[in-house]
Design goal:
Blueprint (H helix, E strand, L loop, with lengths): L12 H5 L4 E3 L6 H11 L12 E3 L8 E4 L2 E4 L7 E4 L11 E4 L7
Antiparallel strand pairs: 1-2, 3-4, 5-6
Length: 107
């Protein structure tokens, strides 16, 4: 089961209802470095990141996605820019706080 490297959100019934998707870290040169910079801005230690680490769609703006039939995929140059502060076990009692960082996207 994937979980988000930034906010620890996991794929469960609640995230499926909200159409939350999980995306592996970009391998594209230049873009990968921007993703890693975003992780650092979020206070994450990138040395703990694994090859299978993923990030949830909540960290991207809606225009970072392309719709293809019933699926949505990230643009190849999309860079996460939204910090989601959430308590791991809080559910709905404590709302998430979204904070937009500077736009790193270059497509």
């Amino acid at each position: 089961m994937p979980s988000c490297f930034i906010c620890s959100r996991t794929r469960n019934a609640e995230s499926k209802k909200g159409n939350i998707s999980f995306h592996r870290i970009s391998k594209k040169d230049g873009i990968r470095e921007q993703w890693l910079e975003f992780f650092k801005e979020c206070g994450k230690d990138i040395s703990t990141m694994k090859l299978t680490s993923a990030i949830c769609s909540e960290h991207f703006k809606p225009d970072d996605f392309m719709k293809y039939l019933r699926n949505k995929t990230l643009h190849e140059n999309a860079v996460p820019s939204i910090v989601v502060n959430r308590l791991k076990y809080a559910k709905k009692a404590v709302p998430e706080v979204l904070k937009q960082l500077t736009n790193h996207s270059i497509y």
